[in-house]
Design brief:
Largest sheet: 2 strands, antiparallel
Order of helices and strands: HHHHHHHHHHEE
CATH architecture: Up-down Bundle
Number of strands: 2
Structural class: mainly alpha
CATH superfamily: Fumarate reductase/succinate dehydrogenase, transmembrane subunit
CATH class: Mainly Alpha
Strand order of the largest sheet: 1-2
Oligomer: single chain
CATH topology: 3 helical TM bundles of succinate and fumarate reductases
Strand content: under 5%
Radius of gyration: 26 Å
Helix content: 55-70%
Number of helices: 10
Length: about 290
């Protein structure tokens, strides 16, 4: 046996570069954060759509998340904590997704040429996801920051005043289409990627998933547009009293701690008659 040959054959094996597991871990993290954000998006849509049932019902949902029915008073900081968690997930998900974007003009040109040549539907969906994801990184960040800083201004009148008098409705309208397209496509691509709900025939299963994806997207877009229209209508009707806090009609006396002080609801109507201690807007035409 030639010892020199045996030694030479084993040189460097201990220092051999192994395939990193981090790309797989980051891919799994991207899928996990996308799944959580997509499901949160759908849940959030149902929460804000509670205004379609009635102002009192929407008030109940808002106060539930502030802990009012658990602690006997509202703690808007709970909402801020939830928003902060969602914002962190958005940043993490965006960071993980950006590593797959074309990083140069040449790469963009190559991708565009291949997309046009292949005419593959799922590739086009990925492209839509890239565009809407870029939009949401800015639109959703603005919305989440506002909720983070003013968690106590969520309610039938408070939200409607923000939409109409605060002129947030254009941003919400664009964000509605961006988030529903991005989230719906993302959940569809997750199901295809991980083999969820495809059955024995992957091709037929993918077609079912595509139909379900577009049906859900249309449903949530219609629900979102109806919800935004409801807030705009309430805000328009309430524009001269913007800044008033909603009081549910079923309560005769209510104490809600607000930033800067508390107040007693007079129960005579659906809003207190005293101005908000820190009004977010000034009602149009309120100046004399």
């Amino acid at each position: 046996m030639d010892t020199r040959v045996d030694l030479a054959a084993g040189v460097g094996l201990a220092d051999r570069t192994r395939a990193s597991r981090w790309p797989a871990r980051m891919d799994f993290a991207q899928s996990a954060t996308g799944l959580v954000l997509g499901l949160f998006m759908w849940g959030h849509m149902f929460f804000v759509a509670s205004i379609l049932v009635g102002k009192d019902f929407m008030w109940t949902i808002a106060k539930f998340f502030e802990g009012y029915f658990f602690f006997g008073r509202s703690y808007p900081g709970i909402v801020s904590a939830i928003v902060a968690g969602v914002l962190l997930l958005v940043v993490l998900h965006a960071f993980l997704a950006m590593r797959k974007f074309p990083a140069s003009y040449r790469q963009w040109r190559t991708f565009a040429a291949h997309r046009a040549m292949l005419g593959h539907g799922d590739t086009t969906l990925w492209w839509i996801q890239v565009i809407t994801g870029f939009m949401l990184f800015f639109l959703a960040s603005v919305h989440l920051y506002q909720m983070l800083m003013h968690p106590g201004l969520i309610g039938p009148y408070e939200s409607a005043d923000r939409v109409w008098t605060g002129r947030w409705w254009p941003l919400y309208l664009v964000m509605l289409f961006a988030v529903e397209l991005h989230g719906g496509i993302g959940l569809y691509r997750l199901a295809v990627k991980w083999g969820w709900l495809q059955g024995d025939d992957p091709a037929q299963g993918r077609r079912r998933l595509q139909r379900a994806k577009w049906a859900l997207t249309v449903f949530f877009l219609v629900l979102g547009l109806a919800t935004l229209a409801a807030y705009m209508k309430i805000g328009y009707e309430h524009r001269d009293r913007a800044g008033e806090i909603y009081v549910p009609s079923s309560r005769t006396s209510l104490h809600l701690p607000l930033q800067g002080g508390g107040w007693e609801g007079d129960g005579a109507g659906s809003a207190r008659t005293h101005p908000h201690p820190n009004p977010p807007f000034e009602a149009e035409g309120a100046k004399t």
